Amino acid sequence: MQQAQILKRKVLQMESKDFDALALDVFRYQAEYNSVYQKYLQCLQIQIDNVRTVEQIPFLPIEFFKTQTVVTGENQPKVTFESSGTTGQNTSHHYVKDPEFYLKVAEQIFEKFYGKLADFKILALLPSYLERTNSSLVYMVEHFIRKSGNPNSGFYLDDYENLAKALIRDRSEESEEMDNSEIQPSDNEYRNKKTLLIGVTFGLLDFAESGIDLSFLKDHDDLIVMETGGMKGRRKELLREEVHEILTNAFSVKTIHSEYGMTELLSQGYSYGEGIFELPVSMRILLRDVNDPFTYISHARSGGINVIDLANIDSCSFIETKDLGSYQLPVISYQLPVISEQLPVISEQLPVISEQLSVSSEQLSVSSEQLSENSNSETDLPLSVFPQTTAQFRILGRFDNSDIRGCNLIIS
Predict the structure, then answer these.
(1) Burial (CB count within 10 angstroms: exposed 0-12, middle 13-18, buried 19+), residue 292
(2) What is the pLDDT along the chain (412 residues), one digit of tens a residue?
(3) Which of 104, 265, 119, 285 has the alpha carbon at shortest distance from 192?
């Protein structure tokens, strides 16, 4: 569909000042051509023409990716990404029609945060993901490894000895110290490149506690250790601070970097340390009240994370996640009008049919009392908080009874 290609081109070329206008364009496109999102909007009795600001755009509950085929347009998907989950869990599926676009977006974001992939040696420790064939994270990291062009880049399942050897390759002085005939000095073009060790949290902890001597890392400051979150039931959940203390000591680095991503998103956020995430221009978050998904909260409180990912052109860009977070930087507060004509959501008017959407009425019900009070007068309007720019934020955990996921599930 030509409109989709135009929007994708705009996403790749956008600047932060373009976000609001492009988000509204994507909303109108998906409201028309995404049947699941369209039905959801109808249940909320949203008039598309009355949505004039980003703050008024409804967010699709992430559970829909488990029960529905969330796609925009008619083209068939080329790749299907599936979320991780414990045995018996119903997992999410993201049907990706344009995997090349996904890789372009991921590469562009990474290089904006860290520099050219060609300047890196990339070592991936993703055992739980590598054991699956439909992980979006593995798909992305595999692309990064190819783009690095470094023969020592690669995946490691649980082969910690060879991973340690790979960490030391490309450094002629250490190569001489390592008493192992398998290690050969690398060509000069690969020597002294930056090294990215990216891994699922339990894998990095297992490596750190494997007993392998990593003291050779103390004299080098070109190593970036990045965790992608999650214990996957393999280890006891720990505080983020505890995890990072173990890893910083083991790998002789000052901070542990983190990646914020999930199966349902094509863009990623990154943290340079301390669990403080930043987002690319294609993403924005909005924190909602944990008891009322249609109310945004002040920066002084924690809340549920709503994500706008404009790269999700072929699925849905507006997702209500099950992550809990808080803003790290001050944000601008202002009044968000909730007009009864735009959102006349009364519980009796929302008999959400399970055959159509598989969404419980509990997910969508909003009491008429709440909305009538919010729309009686301008002085009683609910307070909305929305960052004027891409804000920094923290991940605090997950909603109770939500799935165990790999996207930075570390207790904070």
Answers:
(1) middle
(2) 699 999 999 999 999 999 999 999 999 999 999 999 999 999 999 999 999 999 999 999 999 999 999 999 988 999 999 997 654 578 999 999 999 999 999 999 999 999 999 999 999 998 867 677 799 999 999 999 999 999 989 998 888 999 999 998 755 444 444 444 444 444 455 565 899 999 999 899 999 999 999 999 987 789 999 999 775 555 566 778 888 999 999 999 999 999 999 999 999 999 999 999 999 999 999 999 988 988 988 766 789 999 999 999 999 999 999 999 988 865 444 444 443 444 444 344 444 434 444 444 444 444 334 433 443 333 333 334 445 445 789 998 887 655 544 444 443 4
(3) 119
Beta pairing partners, 125: 156, 199
Which residues lie closer than 8 Å to 206 by C-beta, 6 or more apart?
158, 160, 235
3-state per-residue secondary structure call for the chain:
CHHHHHHHHHHHHCCHHHHHHHHHHHHHHHHHHCHHHHHHHHHCCCCHHHCCCHHHCCCEECCHHHHCCCCCCCCCCCEEEECCCCCCCCCCEEEECCHHHHHHHHHHHHHHHHCCHHHEEEEEECHHHHCCCCCHHHHHHHHHHHHHCCCCCEEECCCHHHHHHHHHCCCHHHHHHCCCCCCCCCCHHHCCCEEEEEECHHHHHHHHCCCCCCHHHHHCCCEEEEECCCCCCCCCCCEHHHHHHHHHHHHCCCCCEEEECCCCCCCCEEECCCCEEECCCCEEEEEECCCCCCCECCCCCCEEEEEEECCCCCCCCEEEEEEEEEECCCCCEEECCCCCCCCCCCHHHCCCCHHHHCCCHHHHCCCHHHHHHHCCCHHHCCEEECCCCCCCEEEEEECCCCCCCCCCCCEC
Distance separating alpha carbons of residues 183 and 172, to the nearest angstrom:
10
